[in-house]
Structures are given as structure tokens and as C-alpha cells.
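Hi F.,

I've been meaning to write this up properly since the lab meeting, where we talked about keeping a consistent format for the predictions we share between groups. The idea is simple: the sequence comes first, exactly as it goes in, then the C-alpha cells exactly as they come out, then a line or two of notes. No screenshots and no reformatting. I'm using this chain as the first example so we have something concrete to point to.
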Amino acid sequence: MRILRCAAHEFGLTGLLLFLIVTAVRWLLAPDSPLVIANPDLALAVLGALMGGLLALLILSPSGRYSGGHLNPAVTVALWRLKVFPGRAVIPYITAQAAGSLAGTALGGLAWGTTARHAPIAYAAVGPAPTWNATAVFTAEAGAIVAVTLMLGAFLSRPSTRRLLPYAVGLATALVIALLGPCSGGSANPARQLGPALLSGNTTHLWIYLLAPITGALAGADIWRAAAALARRGRSRHALRSAPD
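Output, unedited:
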């Protein structure tokens, strides 16, 4: 039952995150907004900083502390592969995150009307630059989660750094949006794109935004575990050489 309660919190957190994303994109990027930022790169940098800060706050909220504050199926898979999250909870969490994505996106569309629902906002769905092909987008989106997963492994391996993880995740999210947004779209979260893509009908590259982060999470966790095993063996050999005869 605790897993289902945690999944319910993930549904609420992910729904709130997507509502805030649609809200931020509507007011920062819509041409009719008094807050619009005309420079696309600057707009993405501001959006990244805003979303990174909000994500950190959601993770630190009572609800985020209760569920772990994943809000991203790729993070759930990464934590499971790093052996710090139970496998039986993976499907409930991902299902809740997907449902939250749809609900939060739909709520954003209802709250902000046709401007949020139609182009150029289109429920805040992201897309790659015209010069980026599918392989480049997949590599960038997967690579971003490889880096995030390695960061998760590093922070979780030391009790003294675990409390800093929400801030690190927020900073990483801000950087992904600012740096990859103009190129690959900067999603790095299947839940971030699922609702917007389905509700806007912009599903051409949806498979990439769903599959690439999961692939990156699996690869990043395997890299971390292999590196950690090598480090442990190195320490063991050093201890044996240092032991007195």
C-alpha cells in the first residue's frame, strides 16, 4: 500500500510540474504575453532556471520527500538500476508519472486557453532544431540522462552529499533546458514530453523523447556500477599491499 501512496504523490507532483511548465512557456514564449522574451536562447535560459528551481522545490516538498520526488520515469529507472529503489515500485511510479503528465498538461491548457493549446505554444511540447536528425536528438537526450545518472550515483554514494541532491537535480535540469533546448529540445524526461506531445498532436519525435532517457538511465547506471566495482577492487588490492606481513 505504501508503494501506491507514493505513486499517488508522484502523480500529483508530476501533474503540478507539467502544469507549471505549460504556464511558464505560455507566459514567457507566447507572442501576446507581456512577459515574452524575444530572444529564444535567453528565453530558454530563463525557462531552465525557473524550472530547475521549481523542480528542486517540488523534490524538497513534503510530498516529494514522501515519494522520493522522482517526477521522471528515467530517474525512477536509474535509481532502480543503481539498486537504491525497489523494482516492484517501478511500474506504479512510471504509470503515475505518465498519468500526471497528461493531467497536468490538460489542466494547463484549460487554465490558459487557446493560446496554450495551439501553436506556437502547443501545450509546451518540445521539438528538435531543423538541422538535428533523429540520431543526434536520441544521442543528446540519452547523454543528458547518462550524466544525470552518474550524478545521482555520486551524490547517493556519500551520506554527506545526499541532502544536496535536490539542488543538483534542479541545476542539472536548468542546464539541460538552456543548453539542449535549442538543439534537441532539452526534455530528458519522458513525462515532460508525453502529455504535451499527445495533447498537441506533435508526436513525430515522441518515441525518441520516451526511449532515449530510459536508455540513458540504464547506460548511466551500468557505467556507475562498473566504475564503483573497479574502485572497490582497487581499494581492496591497495589494502592487501598495505597490510603488514
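Notes:
Residues 206-242 form the longest helix (37 residues).
The CA atoms of residues 128 and 184 lie 4 Å apart.

If this format works for you, I'll send the rest the same way.

G.
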